[in-house]
Design a protein that fits this description.
The protein is α+β, with helices and mostly antiparallel strands and 404 residues long. It has a single domain, classed as FAD/NAD(P)-binding domain. Helices cover 37% and strands 29% of the residues. The chain contains 13 helices and 20 strands. A hairpin with a 2-residue loop joins strand 18 and strand 19. It is globular. It starts with a strand and ends with a helix. 47% of the residues are buried.
């Protein structure tokens, strides 16, 4: 009997988790990644409790935690006053999840450890430097075309998962609309070796600094050397050029406004990117599916994008398995879009937009009202728990299970 083969476009963490989950279910897997190596540029690093449960399902949780930092708390700050507004404690969720904390592990580490595990499966093929250029399908399967080291190639499979990012070739080949908008400002990410826990007294590993002029997200990651480093995320001015935003004056003055160090910060990486809030009109067309940034993108405030993508991957593999094994008919495929698209809009899109607006609020009365609301939530145990169930996407997972 022919073994079912699933082709995954994209070797980032979402594609890798999907591929690994497929291999563990007994399916043949072909993973195609455009770049020649795993992209280790600083990107997503915040992994919420609901997602940690999924990483545990594919057998990577111990290594994942070991290579990252455990962050029990997160805080909101009034940046101009350099004062903490409120602290939230994930330990409140200890009766809701086996992982009542966030883990700060850079996404390239998850991709790397997943690929290492994937290569232990005889029927799993991993191809770097192989850029997907198109996809076609018929009643019996799908064909992916790609440009590899030896020129044009074709890969035939039973199903295709497009996890090839916000500019997804798979999504474009299917002519699926990417609905939403792009923010006028961009986000600037600066990575420094200076320790903000020594500078900003009382801060933790995850901090959101509200400021009507220039909010900041400030969080710590382990780094590949395990010695730790801090990432600071800022909005640019709308009229600011790339050269201005990435230049020394911008870099060092922005960090000094977080905390006046009295010398230059030790900056080891700078990145600038456009920020979108978009969701694909559908996450499935026939035998081809979208997951992760191919299906939805959002601003990074709250660290929800990658988490939502891994949720896509696990739900999709579970759905494929039910249909392939005859536990359900192909109509179950439509549920994947119903669940994942709805939940991305309700939990990821809405929450990240709220998070951003909370930090950038300019009206003094409205700003104070937002601070008061956060304090009221944090001081009430029930509201504290409910807030964390939503921000950790546990509530999203539970709602998915109730959706037919």
């Amino acid at each position: 009997m022919k073994k079912i083969r699933i082709i995954i476009a994209g070797g980032g963490p979402v594609g890798v988790v999907a591929a690994l989950a497929c291999a563990q279910r007994g399916y043949a897997v072909t993973l195609l990644e455009a770049e020649s190596t795993i992209d280790d540029n600083p990107r997503a690093a915040t992994t919420h409790p609901s997602t940690l449960e999924m990483i545990a399902r594919v057998g990577l949780i111990d290594q994942f935690i070991q290579e990252g930092l455990v962050a029990r708390f997160f805080q909101f700050w009034d940046k101009p006053a350099r004062a903490q507004i409120v602290e939230f404690d994930h330990d409140t969720l200890r009766d809701e999840t086996p992982y009542p904390f966030v883990v700060q592990t850079e996404q390239h580490k998850l991709a790397r450890m997943g690929i290492e595990r994937l290569r232990t499966f005889a029927d799993a093929k991993v191809r770097f430097a192989t850029r997907v250029t198109g996809v076609t399908q018929d009643a019996n399967g799908a064909t992916v075309t790609a440009e590899g080291p030896d020129g044009k190639e074709s890969f035939r499979g039973d199903y295709v998962i497009g996890a090839d990012g916000g500019r997804s070739t798979v999504r474009k080949a299917l002519d699926i609309e990417f609905e939403g908008f792009t923010w006028p400002e961009r986000f600037l990410v600066l990575t420094t070796l200076d320790d903000f826990q020594e500078l900003l007294t009382g801060c933790c590993y995850r901090n959101y600094l509200a400021d009507p002029d220039e909010w900041t997200n400030l969080f710590k990651v382990a780094g590949d050397d395990g010695k730790g480093r801090w990432r600071a995320v800022f909005p640019t001015r709308v009229e600011e050029s790339d050269e201005e935003a990435l230049g020394d004056e911008s870099t060092y003055s922005r960090l000094q406004r977080v905390f006046p160090l009295g010398r230059r910060y030790n900056v080891v990486h700078r990145n600038l990117y456009k920020v979108h809030q978009r969701v694909a009109a559908t996450f499935r067309q026939g035998r081809v599916f979208l997951a992760g940034d191919s299906a939805h993108v959002n601003n990074s405030v709250g660290g929800l994008g990658l988490n939502g993508g891994i949720h896509d991957a696990m739900e999709l593999v579970d759905t494929l398995h039910q249909v392939i094994t005859g536990q359900a008919g192909e109509e179950l495929f439509d549920r994947y879009t119903r669940r994942r698209r709805t939940l991305n809009i309700e939990f990821v899109q809405e929450q990240t937009i709220i998070n951003k607006k909370r930090l950038e609020e300019r009206d003094p009365k409205a700003r104070q009202a937002r601070f008061d609301e956060l304090r009221a939530i944090a001081e009430d145990r029930g509201k504290h728990t409910e807030f964390l169930l939503r921000t950790s996407l546990i509530a999203s997972v539970r709602k998915a299970q109730s959706m037919e």
